[in-house]
UniProtKB/TrEMBL annotation:
Organism: Paraburkholderia bannensis
Cofactor: [4Fe-4S] cluster
Binding site for [4Fe-4S] cluster: C309, C312, C355, E362
IspG TIM-barrel domain location: 28-290
Name of the top EC class for this enzyme: oxidoreductase
Gene that produces this protein: ispG
Protein name: 4-hydroxy-3-methylbut-2-en-1-yl diphosphate synthase (flavodoxin)
Cofactor annotation comment: Binds 1 [4Fe-4S] cluster.
Function field: Converts 2C-methyl-D-erythritol 2,4-cyclodiphosphate (ME-2,4cPP) into 1-hydroxy-2-methyl-2-(E)-butenyl 4-diphosphate.
Reaction(s) catalysed (UniProt annotation): (2E)-4-hydroxy-3-methylbut-2-enyl diphosphate + oxidized [flavodoxin] + H2O + 2 H(+) = 2-C-methyl-D-erythritol 2,4-cyclic diphosphate + reduced [flavodoxin]
Keywords per UniProt: 4Fe-4S, Iron, Iron-sulfur, Isoprene biosynthesis, Metal-binding, Oxidoreductase
HAMAP family: IspG (MF_00159)
This enzyme's EC code(s): 1.17.7.3
Pathway as given in its UniProt record: Isoprenoid biosynthesis; isopentenyl diphosphate biosynthesis via DXP pathway; isopentenyl diphosphate from 1-deoxy-D-xylulose 5-phosphate: step 5/6
């Protein structure tokens, strides 16, 4: 046996400037000592103010702490204040981020109400103009951020990287005695574009505590390599996310693989999981995935977690699968109410197990757990609360009875926490 204990846990968070994003009485801090934030983006036509406000509300209720909206046309810019008004009337105070490309300098100039209604701007330095116009148009957007006291995310994307910068760096690389591989030059171009654009914003008068950086790519290893270097070379707050992560399990797995490595190393202050939703599917899925990445890594808690076994030949019945799904859905549906009424409930663990092998043990380790009978086992389901067996359920109403036990436990345990506060 080793004389040294085995230690777990993630690295200390990288130090960065704290960026405050506000709307009304709502404050979301990114970076500094703040927790890693989860954000999302609408896919509605922003000119449709009602439809956009409805989707923003859905994303905010799912847990998106900021919501980004496209501002690409005069019609969209004109609609932004109406979107904000609709949200305020619904009591949804989530900060809005305006996503600007190509004509952002004109839209911010011509639509001051839009510039004021947004809580943060996103600028891509690779597409704010060409040649001599680039510096002028970029400066106009930074000056708007200063005028309206708004933070900015400078978001570099390898699909729209500054081609002049990339061409210059390729020429410089060709002149090296030992040229870098093209991939390394691309990495360096992304990092230089982000940091150089941020430093230019500082020269124009924007505070370092108003700047967030991102360098988005679509490859897992590429993202890890770029952010590891970016984190070493600046102290700006960093936004993480694969661009065009993909659909379904591919997008979820790729995003989880990339972000988990960086978060484990203490890199990253806010995340977005850029999933392509299934046709007609909810946009909120990417918020749930982002929350679950942070929660399973022990970085934050958002909703009670359900521990469930995968099933095997001992569990030919689907009862435990159905109950696990029902309980997970029930817990997530209750969170908008429970979050306010029962502080701390988001840290609760619930075990729904399928047979006697690991069922009682896992159930004892959870706050509350149930061990359902496997194939050929006694048709009884012991329930454990805080490690102690409290009762055994039988019959056709096991799911309903267990759900009620969970609800009563939440009110009893976490209601007391609120009463004593």
């Amino acid at each position: 046996m080793s004389n040294e204990p085995i230690l777990g846990g993630h690295a200390l968070r990288r130090k960065s400037h704290a960026v405050h994003v506000r709307w009304g009485g709502q404050l979301v801090t990114i970076g500094g000592d703040a927790p890693v934030r989860v954000q999302s983006m609408t896919n509605t036509d922003t000119a449709d103010a009602i439809g956009t406000a409805i989707q923003i509300k859905e994303l905010a209720q799912a847990g998106s702490e900021l919501v980004r909206i496209t501002v690409n046309t005069p019609e969209a810019a004109a609609a932004v204040p109406h979107v904000r008004d609709q949200l305020d009337r619904m009591g949804v105070m989530v900060p809005l981020v305006g996503d600007f490309h190509y004509n952002g300098h004109l839209l911010l100039r011509d639509h001051p109400a839009c510039a004021e209604a947004l809580s943060k701007y996103r600028i891509n330095p690779g597409n704010v103009g060409q040649g001599a116009k680039r510096d002028t148009q970029y400066a106009q957007m930074i000056e708007a951020a200063i005028k309206y006291d708004k933070p900015v995310r400078i978001g570099v994307n390898w699909g729209s990287l500054d081609q002049d910068l990339l061409a210059r760096m390729m020429d410089e690389n060709a002149a090296r005695s030992v040229p870098w591989e093209a991939q390394s030059v691309m990495y360096e171009a992304l990092i230089q574009s982000a940091i150089g654009s941020a430093e230019r914003a500082v020269e124009l008068g924007l505070g370092r505590d108003k700047i967030i950086l991102s360098c988005k790519v679509s490859g897992v290893q590429d993202l890890i390599a770029v952010y590891q270097q970016l984190a070493k070379r600046c102290d700006f707050a960093l936004h993480l996310g694969l661009t065009e992560a993909g659909m379904g399990s591919k997008g979820i797995v790729a995003s989880t693989a990339a972000l988990s490595v960086l978060l484990q190393q203490g890199i990253g202050d806010t995340i977005r999981i850029s999933l392509t939703p299934e046709p007609g599917g909810p946009r909120t899925g990417e918020v749930v995935v982002g929350q679950e990445i942070l929660q399973t890594m022990g970085l934050r808690s958002f909703t009670p977690m359900v521990i469930a076994c995968p099933g095997c030949g001992r569990t030919t019945s689907t009862l435990f699968q159905e109950l696990a799904s029902e309980i997970q859905g029930y817990l997530r549906a209750q969170m908008p109410v429970w979050r306010e009424a029962y502080p701390g409930v988001e840290t609760m663990n619930v075990a729904v197990m399928g047979c006697i092998v690991n069922g009682p043990g896992e159930s004892k380790h959870a706050n509350i757990g149930i061990s359902l009978p496997g194939s050929g086992e006694n048709p009884a389901a012991p329930v454990f609360i805080d490690g102690e067996k409290v009762k055994t359920l039988r019959g056709e109403r096991i799911a309903e009875e267990f759900q009620q036990i969970v609800s009563d436990y939440v009110a009893r345990k976490y209601g007391k926490a609120q009463a004593s506060a």
